Amino acid sequence: MSIAAALRAQISDLSSAISRQQELLDDMQTRLEHLQNQLDSIAYPVLTLPPEMTSEIFIHCLPAKRDIDVVNPEEAPLLLMHVCRAWRHIAISTPALWTAFDICQTAGLHCLAEIAQAWFERARKCPLSVSIYGSLSAHNAFDAFMKTFRQNSRQMASLELHMHVEDFRVVDLHLFEVFDFPLLQKLSVRVLIDEDSEEDPADVNAISMFYNAPLLHEVLISEALPSFVVLPWQQITKFTGELYSVEDCLEAISLMPNLLECTFSAFELENDDADELAVVSHPNMQYLALLTTTSILGKRASSVEVLTLIRLPALRTLEILDTDDFDEEELDAFLELSSPPLRKLTVRPLEGANSIQLQLSPPLVGLTSLIELEVWRPASVFVDVFFEFFGWDSSMFPQLLKLSFLGVAGLEEDMSYEADVYEILCNAAEPIAKRRDTVAGCAQLQSFRVVSRGTFDLRFPPEDLLPFSVLKESGMDVYIGTERRSIV
């Protein structure tokens, strides 16, 4: 066979092979189109929902708390946009998904201004909640972001700024005279303090950009004096001051004549500073909480000494939370000199601190208006004395409706000074039944709770739980157990 004939034969074979492969490819294409048509004809239940219902479901997908920025493709709302075209359209068209704008460490976002602009546009006219953690003034898109921020300030109902002093100063100067917050109701100002900080909040002119906020009523200021920010103090009804000196606390109370709720974390007084401070009285405050806060530099504010320098004759709720230096003498002095119509008292020691050694002193027992008493990690001596009188003395908390012992030592723990669950039950059964049924002149106790901090299920003989089962059947709210479940 000649060379030409051999080549023609090879070409013919390849052409035939190509034809066969083309037939197979056409057949596969036909099968693919048929399968795609079948797939497209399937009505997924989730896609048959009305867009309004899908929007409502999307809103419930928003995380309760974010660990990182909202610019996170693994969380709603951005995650919802990556599922399909229909969901993307619904997500973008649901303003409620875009009302919270939380940014941490702004330096890592190269398109901060563009992101904010898109976010706020999707929120349309809904009130905005904005939280910014990190330096703004050093950002390369600072001016562009401030333009977007200013254009949307009129929609902001909640604003939290956690920045360095320099950032607050530059932002204030940048926006002065053109800034107003007609919808702003809640403001948090947290000053970032670190070892390299060159400016002290006390040395900076007061930040004035929040003054024009006619609806503002709730304010938190952390690691800065109240005077760090110019605010419409007359209209503030709820205030939190974190990492304050006692003097700062007194200044804050004096600034707000219409204050109703107040929370402080305060440092201890140094030496004889108390002798140099004047007592402050506030006639309207109804709620006070004293708690512990630790600064970035490790300084802990947990003092309750401010009680010795304030008089709150209208106070209805007092909560002393997570303190490690509780002194009942300070509480007694406050109760005796303020004579408040207190309805709720909560005392909770810091985890790891000594148990609460409350004494049933005359100022405490004299709280005839008290409706709810909540004691965490009670000491054995307190439990013994409390129930020794509770079931028989009608002058002891005569209006009490709710009694709770929380964070109680479990049976597996060996705590020499703390009362455990079993000790409380043994002391409480007869007095509570007697108070509920037969003590004249007393309100009928409605709730009794004993909650162990342990994780092991509690087990008691049925006869020990019987009195509490009877009380529960009579209509009392009785809860005895761990945080997971009650055994009654």
Automatic annotation (TrEMBL):
Residues 11-38 form a coiled coil. It comes from the Eukaryota. Keywords: Coiled coil. Gene3D superfamilies: 1.20.1280.50. This is F-box domain-containing protein. It comes from Mycena albidolilacea. The lineage of its organism: Eukaryota, Fungi, Dikarya, Basidiomycota, Agaricomycotina.
